[in-house]
Design brief:
353 residues; alpha/beta; nine-stranded mixed sheet; 2 domains; single chain; 41% helix; Spore Coat Polysaccharide Biosynthesis Protein SpsA, Chain A
Length: 353
């Protein structure tokens, strides 16, 4: 009998003591049992580390990575990807090679995984999630699996189906090429790390990494992986429970440092999309398929404008400052046309435009 494919599950952990056991229990109680959890603690200051250690001692399918300094969610995910790429490498060898972390596990070596997914530590999965994913990968043999629907859980524990979809214009669960999905959703931003599951050979071949030090780091990561893929299966199966945490990065209070980080992050993401656009222009001049290039340029242009929109929402709300300098935006304004030139000069006009 053929051995079942191993799923690598990356779970970043930072100060989630109230929700972590719910997440881990949902993973360990899966009907599909061949998986490894890379649980990576980003220097939590609550009891999250102790919870991770307790679960690792009780469960051999956990590799617990304890970082010695806070690296942010992008850095923790990158460390976990680096570890999963080392399939068959002994734990002792990894301990010698990787600095700034401690590795705790009952395993003697990192298993070879066939699929890689991300789960946020305050979220959880339905009992049959991994069975659904691996069955669809076996049936359709794609580079990326995307679930287009998910449950949402509020602080009272009430569950509903979220109306947010990665590809809102997609009506049918089937295999698509990236260009087919772009054609259906030409102005869509491709994001949400936990909504994507990857064939490991595809992910590791291209050595994708999250950009360190920014918020919304899933936007460039998911976009780059999505556009590089040969095939994508879009599923409407609902098995992910997304928790609306009141203290998350996206919904917590906006202090001065957070505003500064968001401003910097959207500038970095804006630069990413401009680089993507310019790369397509080069391919266009070199004689690549004209229709494909035109479609991708429109897609990247739409995302450039979306980044400008996010930036000017911050400018409208918080104004320019030393951390939020007006001059920083000047090189980008031409991408948005006359509307964004007016907003650049007079941010309060956003109320009317």
């Amino acid at each position: 009998m053929q051995e079942k494919a191993c799923v690598g599950i990356i779970v970043p952990v930072y100060n989630v003591e109230a929700y972590l056991t719910r997440c881990l229990d949902s993973l360990l109680n899966q009907s599909y049992e061949n998986f490894v959890i890379v649980l990576i603690n980003d220097a939590s200051t609550d009891c999250s580390r102790e919870i991770c250690l307790d679960y690792q001692l009780r469960e051999k399918r956990i590799v617990f990575i304890d970082t010695l300094s806070n690296a942010g969610v992008a850095g923790t995910r990158n460390k976990a990807l680096q570890i999963l790429e080392q399939g068959d490498k002994s734990i002792e060898m990894l301990k010698e090679q990787m600095e700034g972390i401690e590795i705790h596990t009952q395993l003697s070596a990192i298993p070879n995984v066939e699929y890689v997914m991300f789960v946020d530590s305050d979220d959880y999965l339905s009992h049959d999630a991994l069975q659904t994913i691996t069955t669809d990968f076996r049936d359709y043999d794609v580079d990326i699996y995307i679930h287009n629907y998910h449950y949402v859980v509020d602080v009272r524990g009430e569950v509903g189906v979220h109306n947010y979809r990665i590809f809102p214009q997609v009506q049918e669960a089937k295999v698509y090429t990236p260009l087919e999905l772009v054609r259906l959703n030409p102005k869509n931003i491709v994001t949400t790390t936990w909504a994507f599951v990857y064939k490991a050979s595809f992910l590791f071949k291209h050595h994708f990494r999250f950009i360190d030090g920014i918020s919304n780091e899933d936007v460039p990561f998911c976009t780059q992986a999505f556009i590089t893929a040969q095939s994508v299966y879009v599923s409407f199966a609902k098995w992910y429970y997304y928790f609306l945490s009141p203290v998350s990065e996206m919904r917590g209070k906006m202090g001065a440092q957070k505003v500064k980080r968001f401003f910097h992050s959207w500038i970095v993401i804006l630069d990413f999309f401009i680089a993507c656009y310019e790369s397509v222009c080069v391919k266009d001049r070199q004689g690549a398929a004209m229709g494909d290039c035109a479609l991708l340029k429109k897609f990247y242009e739409a995302n450039i404008v979306r980044c400008l929109k996010r930036i000017f929402e911050l400018v409208y709300e918080y104004g320019y400052s030393d951390d939020f300098p007006k001059e920083r935006l000047k090189p980008y304004i031409h991408w948005g046309g006359a509307k964004y030139y007016l907003l650049y000069c007079y941010p309060r006009l956003k109320k009317f435009l």
